[in-house]
Amino acid sequence: MSSGSVSEPPACCATWQRTALMIAARHGQDDVVARALETSCSQPQLDVVDEQGNTALMIAAREGHQKVVEALVKAGADLAVRNGQGRSAAELAATEEIRAVIRKGEAQAEAILRTILAMGKEESAAASLPTGDFQIPKELLAMAGGMDMPSFAKESPY
Q1: In angstroms, rounded to a whole number, what is the distance separating the alpha carbons of residues 69 and 24?
Q2: What is the rounded distance in angstroms from the CA atom of residue 95 to the CA atom of residue 125?
Q3: What is the CATH number of domain 11-155?
């Protein structure tokens, strides 16, 4: 082994790092992905990487499964993650249509971030409001309207 080269991970690593979500994404099983997102998939699970640094989103994009990509983007998958080769899901996308879905998600995330940062500038005005009177700006609600929130989050009083 020469200096600076990377050795292959042990065979067992690939086994424990592949999640059910990754397997469903690889095979384009959008119904399985949707069910996983509804019932058991938390944000950390959504962005787990395999032995090559690929997330379920990257796998679905690479394999050309647009419905799975749409579901993962809508669920809030991290679109900025780069794999072991330094490539993002958009760069791995098999089609321009899939790349467009990811780019649209990136634009929505950027718009939400800009709105949140703008809210921070108005922090002094918000600090004078009585506790419990804070309202989410209409712009942020409109942007988040396209995102799929689990029903328990919609019903939460917090």
Answers
A1: 11
A2: 46
A3: 1.25.40.20
DSSP assignments along 109-132, one per residue: HHHHHHHHHHHHHTHHHHHTSPTT
3-class SS of residue 105: helix
98 contacts 66 by C-beta, under 8 angstroms: yes
Angle at 138 between CA 109 and CA 76, to 5 degrees: 25
Burial class, 89, CB count within 10 angstroms (exposed 0-12 / middle 13-18 / buried 19+): buried
Each residue's pLDDT tens digit, 62-113: 999 999 999 999 999 999 999 999 999 999 999 999 999 999 999 999 998 8
Q: Do the beta carbons of residue 70 and residue 141 sit within 8 Å?
A: no
